[in-house]
Amino acid sequence: MAAKPKTNTYESPLEKSFAKVVTPLEHFLHNETASGILLMLATVAALIMANSGLHHYYHDFFHAHINIGIAGREIDMTLHHWINDGFMTFFFFVVGLEIKRELLVGELSDMKAAILPIIAAAGGMIFPAAIYAVLNGEGPGAAGWGVPMATDIAFAVGVMMLLGNQVPKTLITFLLALAIVDDLGAVLVIAIFYTENLNLLALAWAGGFFALLILFNIVGMRKSSIRLLVTIALWVAMLNSGIHATIAGVLAAFTVPCMPKVNARDFSDKMRYLMDKFDRLYNGRSVLLNNDKQRAVAMTMENVVRRVKSPLQSLEQTLHVPVAFLILPVFALANAGVVIDPSTLGSVVTDPVALGIMGGLIIGKIVGISGLSLLAVKLGIGQLPAGCKPSHIIGVGMMGGIGFTMSIFIAELGFRGSPETLNIAKTGVLFASIIAGVAGFLWLKYMTPSPEAQEESTAHH
Prior knowledge:
By secondary structure, the protein is mostly helical.
Protein backbone atom coordinates (compact mmCIF):
# COMPACT_ATOMS: atom_id res chain seq x y z
CA MET A 1 0.00 0.00 0.00
CA ALA A 2 1.46 3.34 -1.07
CA ALA A 3 2.30 5.81 1.67
CA LYS A 4 0.21 8.95 1.85
CA PRO A 5 2.23 11.78 0.26
CA LYS A 6 3.37 14.52 2.60
CA THR A 7 1.97 17.97 1.97
CA ASN A 8 3.50 21.31 2.81
CA THR A 9 0.15 22.88 3.64
CA TYR A 10 0.23 25.97 5.80
CA GLU A 11 -2.24 26.00 8.65
CA SER A 12 -2.57 28.67 11.31
CA PRO A 13 -2.50 27.50 14.95
CA LEU A 14 -6.31 27.86 15.29
CA GLU A 15 -7.26 26.64 11.80
CA LYS A 16 -7.73 22.96 12.74
CA SER A 17 -9.83 23.93 15.76
CA PHE A 18 -11.94 26.25 13.62
CA ALA A 19 -12.50 23.48 11.04
CA LYS A 20 -13.92 21.27 13.79
CA VAL A 21 -16.51 23.96 14.46
CA VAL A 22 -17.34 24.72 10.81
CA THR A 23 -17.61 21.18 9.42
CA PRO A 24 -20.57 20.03 11.57
CA LEU A 25 -22.27 23.36 10.85
CA GLU A 26 -21.88 22.82 7.10
CA HIS A 27 -23.36 19.34 7.43
CA PHE A 28 -26.20 20.82 9.49
CA LEU A 29 -26.98 23.46 6.88
CA HIS A 30 -27.19 20.87 4.10
CA ASN A 31 -29.52 18.63 6.06
CA GLU A 32 -33.24 18.74 5.31
CA THR A 33 -33.85 18.04 9.01
CA ALA A 34 -32.25 21.36 9.88
CA SER A 35 -34.49 23.17 7.39
CA GLY A 36 -37.58 21.57 8.93
CA ILE A 37 -36.47 22.53 12.45
CA LEU A 38 -35.84 26.14 11.39
CA LEU A 39 -39.28 26.28 9.75
CA MET A 40 -40.79 24.98 12.97
CA LEU A 41 -38.99 27.63 15.06
CA ALA A 42 -40.13 30.40 12.69
CA THR A 43 -43.71 29.12 12.94
CA VAL A 44 -43.60 29.07 16.74
CA ALA A 45 -42.14 32.60 16.76
CA ALA A 46 -44.93 33.83 14.45
CA LEU A 47 -47.61 32.22 16.63
CA ILE A 48 -46.13 33.76 19.79
CA MET A 49 -45.97 37.24 18.25
CA ALA A 50 -49.50 37.00 16.80
CA ASN A 51 -50.97 35.90 20.13
CA SER A 52 -49.12 38.19 22.54
CA GLY A 53 -48.62 41.86 23.24
CA LEU A 54 -46.41 41.94 20.15
CA HIS A 55 -49.43 41.43 17.89
CA HIS A 56 -49.69 45.04 16.71
CA TYR A 57 -45.93 45.31 16.05
CA TYR A 58 -46.07 42.00 14.13
CA HIS A 59 -49.03 43.13 12.02
CA ASP A 60 -47.69 46.64 11.37
CA PHE A 61 -44.22 45.37 10.44
CA PHE A 62 -45.38 42.92 7.76
CA HIS A 63 -48.05 45.30 6.43
CA ALA A 64 -45.70 48.25 6.01
CA HIS A 65 -45.58 49.41 2.37
CA ILE A 66 -42.36 49.20 0.36
CA ASN A 67 -42.06 51.09 -2.91
CA ILE A 68 -39.46 49.97 -5.46
CA GLY A 69 -38.86 51.50 -8.89
CA ILE A 70 -38.63 54.86 -10.60
CA ALA A 71 -41.25 57.59 -10.99
CA GLY A 72 -44.26 56.27 -12.87
CA ARG A 73 -42.93 52.73 -12.84
CA GLU A 74 -43.04 51.84 -9.14
CA ILE A 75 -44.15 48.59 -7.56
CA ASP A 76 -45.85 49.41 -4.26
CA MET A 77 -46.66 46.39 -2.05
CA THR A 78 -46.69 45.55 1.63
CA LEU A 79 -43.72 43.63 3.03
CA HIS A 80 -46.06 40.65 3.37
CA HIS A 81 -46.80 40.77 -0.38
CA TRP A 82 -43.13 41.31 -1.26
CA ILE A 83 -42.33 38.12 0.65
CA ASN A 84 -45.18 36.10 -0.91
CA ASP A 85 -44.93 37.49 -4.45
CA GLY A 86 -41.21 38.30 -4.64
CA PHE A 87 -39.14 36.35 -2.13
CA MET A 88 -41.07 33.14 -2.78
CA THR A 89 -40.21 33.38 -6.48
CA PHE A 90 -36.76 32.08 -5.50
CA PHE A 91 -38.43 29.12 -3.79
CA PHE A 92 -40.46 28.37 -6.93
CA PHE A 93 -37.30 28.80 -9.03
CA VAL A 94 -35.58 26.07 -6.99
CA VAL A 95 -38.73 23.93 -7.24
CA GLY A 96 -38.56 24.36 -11.03
CA LEU A 97 -34.89 23.36 -11.08
CA GLU A 98 -35.67 20.26 -9.00
CA ILE A 99 -38.55 19.28 -11.27
CA LYS A 100 -36.40 19.71 -14.39
CA ARG A 101 -33.51 17.70 -12.89
CA GLU A 102 -35.84 14.90 -11.78
CA LEU A 103 -37.42 14.73 -15.24
CA LEU A 104 -34.02 14.63 -16.97
CA VAL A 105 -31.83 12.44 -14.77
CA GLY A 106 -33.69 11.70 -11.51
CA GLU A 107 -36.36 9.26 -10.36
CA LEU A 108 -38.87 10.73 -12.79
CA SER A 109 -36.65 10.20 -15.85
CA ASP A 110 -37.40 6.47 -15.93
CA MET A 111 -41.14 5.95 -16.41
CA LYS A 112 -40.99 2.46 -14.86
CA ALA A 113 -39.53 3.91 -11.65
CA ALA A 114 -41.56 7.12 -11.84
CA ILE A 115 -45.01 5.61 -12.30
CA LEU A 116 -45.60 4.82 -8.61
CA PRO A 117 -44.67 8.26 -7.18
CA ILE A 118 -46.68 9.89 -10.01
CA ILE A 119 -49.76 7.80 -9.14
CA ALA A 120 -49.19 8.47 -5.42
CA ALA A 121 -48.90 12.23 -5.99
CA ALA A 122 -52.01 12.29 -8.19
CA GLY A 123 -53.99 10.43 -5.51
CA GLY A 124 -52.56 12.74 -2.88
CA MET A 125 -53.95 15.75 -4.75
CA ILE A 126 -57.32 14.43 -6.00
CA PHE A 127 -58.65 12.84 -2.79
CA PRO A 128 -57.88 15.79 -0.44
CA ALA A 129 -59.44 18.25 -2.91
CA ALA A 130 -62.51 16.01 -3.21
CA ILE A 131 -62.95 15.75 0.57
CA TYR A 132 -62.67 19.52 0.90
CA ALA A 133 -65.16 20.09 -1.93
CA VAL A 134 -67.70 17.72 -0.37
CA LEU A 135 -67.57 19.63 2.93
CA ASN A 136 -67.59 23.12 1.42
CA GLY A 137 -69.50 22.76 -1.85
CA GLU A 138 -70.35 26.17 -3.27
CA GLY A 139 -70.17 27.93 0.11
CA PRO A 140 -67.93 30.85 1.13
CA GLY A 141 -64.98 28.51 1.59
CA ALA A 142 -65.24 26.91 -1.87
CA ALA A 143 -62.08 28.66 -3.11
CA GLY A 144 -59.91 26.71 -0.66
CA TRP A 145 -60.13 23.33 -2.42
CA GLY A 146 -56.46 23.59 -3.48
CA VAL A 147 -55.17 24.11 0.08
CA PRO A 148 -55.07 20.44 1.22
CA MET A 149 -53.56 19.24 -2.08
CA ALA A 150 -49.99 20.27 -1.21
CA THR A 151 -47.23 18.45 0.68
CA ASP A 152 -44.39 20.39 2.32
CA ILE A 153 -41.20 18.73 1.09
CA ALA A 154 -38.88 20.31 3.70
CA PHE A 155 -41.04 19.34 6.68
CA ALA A 156 -41.97 15.87 5.38
CA VAL A 157 -38.40 14.89 4.49
CA GLY A 158 -37.13 16.53 7.70
CA VAL A 159 -39.47 14.43 9.86
CA MET A 160 -38.53 11.27 7.97
CA MET A 161 -34.82 12.05 8.32
CA LEU A 162 -35.29 12.09 12.11
CA LEU A 163 -35.93 8.34 11.85
CA GLY A 164 -32.37 7.77 10.57
CA ASN A 165 -31.77 4.13 9.60
CA GLN A 166 -35.22 3.13 10.81
CA VAL A 167 -36.53 3.55 7.24
CA PRO A 168 -34.99 2.38 3.94
CA LYS A 169 -33.21 5.07 1.92
CA THR A 170 -35.41 4.14 -1.04
CA LEU A 171 -38.46 5.31 0.94
CA ILE A 172 -36.96 8.79 1.28
CA THR A 173 -36.27 8.79 -2.48
CA PHE A 174 -39.90 7.77 -3.08
CA LEU A 175 -41.13 10.63 -0.86
CA LEU A 176 -38.88 13.13 -2.66
CA ALA A 177 -40.11 12.03 -6.10
CA LEU A 178 -43.72 12.15 -4.88
CA ALA A 179 -43.20 15.65 -3.42
CA ILE A 180 -41.63 16.90 -6.68
CA VAL A 181 -44.68 15.75 -8.66
CA ASP A 182 -46.90 17.25 -5.96
CA ASP A 183 -45.05 20.57 -6.31
CA LEU A 184 -45.58 20.49 -10.08
CA GLY A 185 -49.28 19.87 -9.51
CA ALA A 186 -49.47 22.76 -7.03
CA VAL A 187 -47.74 25.08 -9.52
CA LEU A 188 -50.27 24.16 -12.22
CA VAL A 189 -53.19 24.62 -9.80
CA ILE A 190 -51.93 28.08 -8.81
CA ALA A 191 -51.32 29.11 -12.44
CA ILE A 192 -54.66 27.85 -13.77
CA PHE A 193 -57.18 28.13 -10.94
CA TYR A 194 -55.83 30.83 -8.62
CA THR A 195 -55.48 33.48 -11.27
CA GLU A 196 -57.07 36.92 -11.06
CA ASN A 197 -58.40 38.81 -14.08
CA LEU A 198 -55.94 38.33 -16.91
CA ASN A 199 -54.06 41.29 -18.38
CA LEU A 200 -53.41 39.97 -21.88
CA LEU A 201 -50.83 42.64 -22.75
CA ALA A 202 -48.75 41.86 -19.65
CA LEU A 203 -49.16 38.15 -20.35
CA ALA A 204 -47.89 38.71 -23.90
CA TRP A 205 -44.83 40.52 -22.51
CA ALA A 206 -44.25 37.60 -20.12
CA GLY A 207 -44.46 35.19 -23.05
CA GLY A 208 -41.94 37.29 -24.97
CA PHE A 209 -39.43 37.31 -22.11
CA PHE A 210 -39.88 33.55 -21.62
CA ALA A 211 -39.26 33.01 -25.35
CA LEU A 212 -36.14 35.19 -25.10
CA LEU A 213 -34.75 32.95 -22.33
CA ILE A 214 -35.36 29.92 -24.56
CA LEU A 215 -33.67 31.71 -27.47
CA PHE A 216 -30.61 32.32 -25.26
CA ASN A 217 -30.28 28.53 -24.94
CA ILE A 218 -30.55 28.02 -28.69
CA VAL A 219 -27.81 30.54 -29.47
CA GLY A 220 -25.64 29.47 -26.51
CA MET A 221 -25.90 32.74 -24.54
CA ARG A 222 -25.20 31.87 -20.91
CA LYS A 223 -24.18 35.21 -19.43
CA SER A 224 -25.87 35.12 -16.01
CA SER A 225 -26.28 38.90 -15.64
CA ILE A 226 -28.28 39.17 -18.90
CA ARG A 227 -30.42 36.14 -18.01
CA LEU A 228 -31.09 37.65 -14.56
CA LEU A 229 -32.30 40.94 -16.07
CA VAL A 230 -34.67 39.10 -18.44
CA THR A 231 -35.93 36.95 -15.53
CA ILE A 232 -36.67 40.08 -13.48
CA ALA A 233 -38.57 41.51 -16.47
CA LEU A 234 -40.48 38.20 -16.73
CA TRP A 235 -41.39 38.46 -13.02
CA VAL A 236 -42.65 42.06 -13.41
CA ALA A 237 -44.75 41.05 -16.43
CA MET A 238 -46.22 38.08 -14.54
CA LEU A 239 -46.94 40.33 -11.54
CA ASN A 240 -49.09 42.53 -13.81
CA SER A 241 -50.64 39.67 -15.79
CA GLY A 242 -53.02 38.33 -13.15
CA ILE A 243 -51.20 34.97 -12.94
CA HIS A 244 -49.31 34.73 -9.67
CA ALA A 245 -45.84 36.28 -10.03
CA THR A 246 -44.02 33.32 -8.47
CA ILE A 247 -44.84 31.22 -11.56
CA ALA A 248 -42.12 33.30 -13.24
CA GLY A 249 -39.62 31.43 -11.07
CA VAL A 250 -40.74 28.06 -12.41
CA LEU A 251 -40.75 29.27 -16.02
CA ALA A 252 -37.25 30.74 -15.68
CA ALA A 253 -36.00 27.52 -14.07
CA PHE A 254 -37.23 25.45 -17.01
CA THR A 255 -35.01 27.53 -19.33
CA VAL A 256 -31.80 27.07 -17.30
CA PRO A 257 -29.31 25.05 -19.42
CA CYS A 258 -28.75 21.51 -18.18
CA MET A 259 -25.71 20.74 -20.34
CA PRO A 260 -22.22 21.85 -19.22
CA LYS A 261 -19.85 23.76 -21.47
CA VAL A 262 -17.21 21.01 -21.09
CA ASN A 263 -18.07 17.31 -21.20
CA ALA A 264 -16.54 14.78 -18.78
CA ARG A 265 -14.03 13.34 -21.26
CA ASP A 266 -12.72 16.74 -22.36
CA PHE A 267 -12.61 17.84 -18.71
CA SER A 268 -10.41 14.89 -17.79
CA ASP A 269 -8.04 15.50 -20.73
CA LYS A 270 -7.87 19.25 -20.11
CA MET A 271 -7.22 18.87 -16.38
CA ARG A 272 -4.52 16.26 -16.98
CA TYR A 273 -2.80 18.58 -19.47
CA LEU A 274 -3.05 21.54 -17.06
CA MET A 275 -1.76 19.47 -14.13
CA ASP A 276 1.29 18.43 -16.17
CA LYS A 277 1.87 22.05 -17.16
CA PHE A 278 1.41 23.15 -13.54
CA ASP A 279 4.09 20.67 -12.41
CA ARG A 280 6.53 21.73 -15.16
CA LEU A 281 6.26 25.37 -14.09
CA TYR A 282 7.28 24.64 -10.50
CA ASN A 283 10.13 27.01 -9.56
CA GLY A 284 11.08 25.61 -6.18
CA ARG A 285 8.73 27.87 -4.25
CA SER A 286 5.60 26.40 -2.70
CA VAL A 287 3.54 29.63 -2.69
CA LEU A 288 1.77 30.60 -5.92
CA LEU A 289 2.27 34.29 -5.18
CA ASN A 290 5.87 33.77 -6.22
CA ASN A 291 5.02 32.02 -9.50
CA ASP A 292 2.87 34.04 -11.94
CA LYS A 293 2.80 31.35 -14.63
CA GLN A 294 1.77 28.60 -12.23
CA ARG A 295 -0.89 30.87 -10.74
CA ALA A 296 -2.31 31.52 -14.23
CA VAL A 297 -2.59 27.75 -14.81
CA ALA A 298 -4.37 27.33 -11.46
CA MET A 299 -6.90 30.00 -12.47
CA THR A 300 -7.47 28.22 -15.79
CA MET A 301 -8.09 24.98 -13.89
CA GLU A 302 -10.62 26.73 -11.68
CA ASN A 303 -12.43 28.02 -14.78
CA VAL A 304 -12.50 24.52 -16.34
CA VAL A 305 -13.98 23.07 -13.12
CA ARG A 306 -16.78 25.67 -13.27
CA ARG A 307 -17.48 24.86 -16.92
CA VAL A 308 -17.85 21.10 -16.33
CA LYS A 309 -20.83 21.72 -14.01
CA SER A 310 -24.14 22.46 -15.70
CA PRO A 311 -25.80 25.79 -14.88
CA LEU A 312 -28.83 23.88 -13.58
CA GLN A 313 -26.68 21.90 -11.15
CA SER A 314 -24.72 24.95 -10.02
CA LEU A 315 -27.80 27.10 -9.43
CA GLU A 316 -29.65 24.38 -7.54
CA GLN A 317 -26.67 23.84 -5.22
CA THR A 318 -26.09 27.57 -4.77
CA LEU A 319 -29.71 28.48 -4.01
CA HIS A 320 -30.64 25.47 -1.85
CA VAL A 321 -29.21 26.90 1.37
CA PRO A 322 -30.56 30.49 1.11
CA VAL A 323 -34.01 29.20 0.10
CA ALA A 324 -34.19 26.55 2.82
CA PHE A 325 -32.63 28.61 5.60
CA LEU A 326 -33.72 32.16 4.80
CA ILE A 327 -36.64 32.44 2.38
CA LEU A 328 -38.86 29.64 3.75
CA PRO A 329 -38.39 30.63 7.42
CA VAL A 330 -39.13 34.28 6.53
CA PHE A 331 -42.25 33.11 4.68
CA ALA A 332 -43.32 31.10 7.75
CA LEU A 333 -42.64 34.08 10.02
CA ALA A 334 -44.80 36.34 7.83
CA ASN A 335 -47.65 33.89 7.21
CA ALA A 336 -47.95 31.50 10.17
CA GLY A 337 -49.04 34.20 12.62
CA VAL A 338 -52.48 32.70 13.20
CA VAL A 339 -54.52 34.37 15.94
CA ILE A 340 -55.76 31.57 18.20
CA ASP A 341 -58.57 32.49 20.57
CA PRO A 342 -59.15 29.61 23.05
CA SER A 343 -62.77 30.68 23.55
CA THR A 344 -63.57 30.22 19.85
CA LEU A 345 -61.16 27.38 19.12
CA GLY A 346 -63.93 24.79 19.24
CA SER A 347 -65.94 26.62 16.58
CA VAL A 348 -62.83 27.04 14.41
CA VAL A 349 -62.09 23.31 14.20
CA THR A 350 -65.74 22.58 13.39
CA ASP A 351 -65.80 25.17 10.62
CA PRO A 352 -66.25 23.55 7.17
CA VAL A 353 -63.08 25.23 5.87
CA ALA A 354 -60.87 23.93 8.72
CA LEU A 355 -62.58 20.52 8.61
CA GLY A 356 -62.12 20.31 4.84
CA ILE A 357 -58.43 21.12 5.11
CA MET A 358 -57.82 18.78 8.05
CA GLY A 359 -59.88 16.00 6.49
CA GLY A 360 -58.08 16.46 3.18
CA LEU A 361 -54.57 16.51 4.63
CA ILE A 362 -55.02 13.79 7.25
CA ILE A 363 -57.48 11.37 5.61
CA GLY A 364 -57.33 12.34 1.93
CA LYS A 365 -53.55 12.08 1.74
CA ILE A 366 -53.47 8.61 3.32
CA VAL A 367 -56.24 7.30 1.07
CA GLY A 368 -54.86 9.00 -2.05
CA ILE A 369 -51.14 8.31 -1.62
CA SER A 370 -51.19 4.94 0.16
CA GLY A 371 -54.42 3.58 -1.30
CA LEU A 372 -53.64 4.32 -4.93
CA SER A 373 -49.99 3.27 -4.58
CA LEU A 374 -50.84 -0.13 -3.09
CA LEU A 375 -53.65 -0.61 -5.63
CA ALA A 376 -51.18 0.15 -8.46
CA VAL A 377 -48.73 -2.42 -7.03
CA LYS A 378 -51.50 -5.03 -6.72
CA LEU A 379 -52.53 -4.42 -10.33
CA GLY A 380 -48.92 -4.69 -11.49
CA ILE A 381 -48.78 -1.09 -12.71
CA GLY A 382 -45.96 -0.15 -10.34
CA GLN A 383 -43.65 -1.80 -7.85
CA LEU A 384 -42.70 -0.96 -4.28
CA PRO A 385 -39.31 0.71 -3.77
CA ALA A 386 -36.57 -1.80 -2.90
CA GLY A 387 -36.67 -2.80 0.77
CA CYS A 388 -40.09 -1.22 1.36
CA LYS A 389 -43.25 -2.89 2.65
CA PRO A 390 -46.89 -1.74 2.31
CA SER A 391 -46.64 -0.38 5.87
CA HIS A 392 -43.88 1.99 4.71
CA ILE A 393 -46.15 3.40 2.00
CA ILE A 394 -48.89 3.99 4.59
CA GLY A 395 -46.34 5.97 6.60
CA VAL A 396 -45.54 8.10 3.54
CA GLY A 397 -49.28 8.70 3.09
CA MET A 398 -49.39 10.07 6.63
CA MET A 399 -46.31 12.23 6.05
CA GLY A 400 -47.96 13.61 2.91
CA GLY A 401 -50.46 15.35 5.17
CA ILE A 402 -47.79 17.84 6.24
CA GLY A 403 -49.01 20.70 4.05
CA PHE A 404 -47.59 23.84 5.64
CA THR A 405 -45.60 26.03 3.18
CA MET A 406 -47.48 25.40 -0.06
CA SER A 407 -50.84 24.93 1.70
CA ILE A 408 -50.52 28.28 3.50
CA PHE A 409 -49.37 29.85 0.24
CA ILE A 410 -52.47 28.62 -1.62
CA ALA A 411 -54.69 29.67 1.31
CA GLU A 412 -53.26 33.19 0.99
CA LEU A 413 -54.33 33.20 -2.68
CA GLY A 414 -57.76 31.65 -2.16
CA PHE A 415 -58.82 33.76 0.82
CA ARG A 416 -56.91 37.00 0.18
CA GLY A 417 -60.04 39.14 0.60
CA SER A 418 -61.38 37.28 3.63
CA PRO A 419 -59.02 37.56 6.65
CA GLU A 420 -61.29 35.58 9.04
CA THR A 421 -61.58 32.63 6.65
CA LEU A 422 -57.84 32.84 5.95
CA ASN A 423 -57.12 32.61 9.69
CA ILE A 424 -59.38 29.55 9.96
CA ALA A 425 -57.69 27.95 6.94
CA LYS A 426 -54.21 28.52 8.38
CA THR A 427 -55.34 27.04 11.71
CA GLY A 428 -56.55 23.95 9.89
CA VAL A 429 -53.23 23.66 8.01
CA LEU A 430 -51.19 23.96 11.22
CA PHE A 431 -53.30 21.43 13.16
CA ALA A 432 -53.36 18.95 10.26
CA SER A 433 -49.61 19.26 9.64
CA ILE A 434 -48.80 18.60 13.31
CA ILE A 435 -51.14 15.58 13.47
CA ALA A 436 -49.86 14.18 10.16
CA GLY A 437 -46.20 14.67 11.11
CA VAL A 438 -46.52 13.07 14.54
CA ALA A 439 -48.70 10.20 13.26
CA GLY A 440 -46.36 9.49 10.33
CA PHE A 441 -43.28 9.56 12.57
CA LEU A 442 -44.80 7.20 15.16
CA TRP A 443 -46.16 4.85 12.48
CA LEU A 444 -42.81 4.51 10.69
CA LYS A 445 -40.93 4.16 13.98
CA TYR A 446 -43.11 1.51 15.61
CA MET A 447 -45.21 -0.11 12.87
CA THR A 448 -42.64 -0.78 10.14
CA PRO A 449 -39.66 -3.15 10.14
CA SER A 450 -36.24 -1.51 10.08
CA PRO A 451 -33.83 -2.42 7.24
CA GLU A 452 -31.69 -4.37 9.75
CA ALA A 453 -34.72 -6.39 10.93
CA GLN A 454 -35.63 -7.16 7.32
CA GLU A 455 -32.10 -8.37 6.60
CA GLU A 456 -32.18 -10.67 9.64
CA SER A 457 -35.57 -12.02 8.60
CA THR A 458 -34.27 -12.70 5.09
CA ALA A 459 -31.16 -14.41 6.47
CA HIS A 460 -33.26 -16.75 8.65
CA HIS A 461 -35.39 -17.72 5.66
